[in-house]
Design brief:
about 80% helix; about 425 residues; mainly alpha
């Protein structure tokens, strides 16, 4: 096996860092913080479990693209019309909810950072209008370079806060004990696993980004480069997920303070977690930093979902000029309008909407993990470019675990 030299390893970083920017969003700032606030360290094992079972399915997206030069949407189409149709319908449905969920929380931070108040529908509309304008104007590339630095800074800030509160945590066995296995807990676990550390469909975005980078560089990444790139981004997202759970536990668990049911109130309470540790003087700085992080996430997610929709269109109706700026802008506007409509029609409370979206992506996740497993171990990929036997077993165990958890969820939803 070829070993990566340090400079080569650093140069290979790209799609994996984009993945990390996408992951540090709703799953971390919302779901992990809520897990710590509501259940304390009892949810730590669930967060770790989610990170372990999601790893193979998410990793295979970039590796498949690096090995074949094709994105996963092409693979799904080659598997037959039935599989491709089911995939397309499920993704076109879920991507609207994912964009809506990211925009909902981002718009809450926008209100807090800029000091204005408006309803959730209007705030989401304003946020997605900003996102669409930036993406269509071509300013996203410049913003991406800036927000990568901000994401690193936010990671350092979160790590510092975690170190400052780690002595407040109760590390006894009773604190780590799993809570009562009842219907509300099962439903929350499903909501947590759905977005933790990201939805499984991020593997498709990873494959799209890998192909795009190969077109820019004029060559495909090697297996080692693709694996290292993804592992760096994935490990970062998993560690930060645990840190956010620690912060929610240290500051909010057992305090009697509930997380507000609206997006702006939730965002404000999250920022108060930081300022209670660092000091009130830091509120504005943290608010702007968190807003930039979520704006980066909103841009990356919306751009990725738009590209996925275009890829689905290209495989559904070959010959059309799907990759033109005109098609991109049309699909982008349609997705933003549909996401705003979803908020308008279905939003009852911030937490309830986030849980509903998490359940949607959770149910789709095991099927995508299975498709990705079959793609990476298919005959079109030489054996030397396939992951080893350990990862194959890990992937199969993960798929079975996700399907079992889905069965438990459906049982409690129907009979619990």
């Amino acid at each position: 096996m070829n070993k990566l030299h340090f400079k080569q390893a650093i140069a290979s970083l790209g799609p994996g860092l984009l993945y990390a920017a996408v992951a540090v969003g709703v799953s971390h700032l919302v779901q992990a913080t809520r897990a710590g606030a509501d259940y304390g360290l009892a949810m730590a094992l669930i967060v770790i479990f989610a990170c372990l079972v999601k790893y193979p399915g998410l990793r295979f997206g970039g590796e498949y693209a690096a090995a074949t030069g094709k994105n996963l949407v092409v693979n799904y189409r080659e598997r037959g019309l039935v599989i491709f149709s089911l995939f397309s319908v499920s993704q076109l449905f879920s991507m609207v909810f994912i964009i809506a969920a990211v925009a909902l929380f981002s718009s809450g931070l926008l209100q807090v950072a800029l000091g204005f108040q408006t309803g959730p529908v209007m705030s989401v509309f304003l946020m997605l209008t900003l996102v669409a304008v930036l993406l269509m104007s071509g300013h996203y590339k410049a913003l991406e370079r800036v927000t990568k630095t901000i994401v690193i800074g936010f990671t350092v800030l979160t790590t510092l806060c975690m170190l400052l509160v780690v002595d407040r945590l109760d590390w006894s066995w009773s604190a780590l004990a799993f809570p009562a296995f009842d219907a509300p807990t099962v439903l929350f676990i499903v909501a947590l696993v759905g977005f933790m550390p990201s939805p499984t469909d991020a593997s498709i975005l990873q494959s799209l980004w890998t192909v795009a980078r190969a077109e820019t560089d004029g060559r495909l990444a090697t297996k080692e480069e693709s694996r290292f790139d993804f592992n760096v981004g994935y490990l970062t997202s998993c560690v930060l997920a645990v840190f956010f759970l620690f912060l929610g536990t240290a500051v909010l668990f057992g305090s009697g303070v509930e997380m507000p049911p609206d997006n702006a109130g939730f965002a404000r309470r999250l920022l108060e977690v930081y300022t209670s540790i660092i000091g009130d003087w830091s509120y504005s700085i943290i608010a702007v930093t968190a807003l930039c992080v979520m704006l980066s996430t909103a841009l990356t997610v919306t751009d990725g979902m738009t590209r996925m929709a275009l890829a689905i269109g290209a495989e559904s109706l070959p010959g059309a000029h799907w990759q033109t700026n005109r098609f991109y802008n049309i699909v982008l506007v349609v997705l933003c309008l549909l996401a705003t409509t979803v908020i308008w029609l279905l939003l009852q409370s911030f937490s309830a909407f986030m849980d509903m979206t998490s359940v949607i992506v959770f149910i789709i996740g095991p099927f995508l993990a299975l498709l990705n497993h079959q793609a990476i171990y298919s005959d079109e990929i030489p054996e030397e470019k396939q992951p080893g036997q350990l990862i194959r077993i890990w992937s199969l165990v993960s798929i079975i675990s996700l399907f079992l958890l889905m069965a438990i969820y459906l049982y409690y939803r129907l009979f619990g």
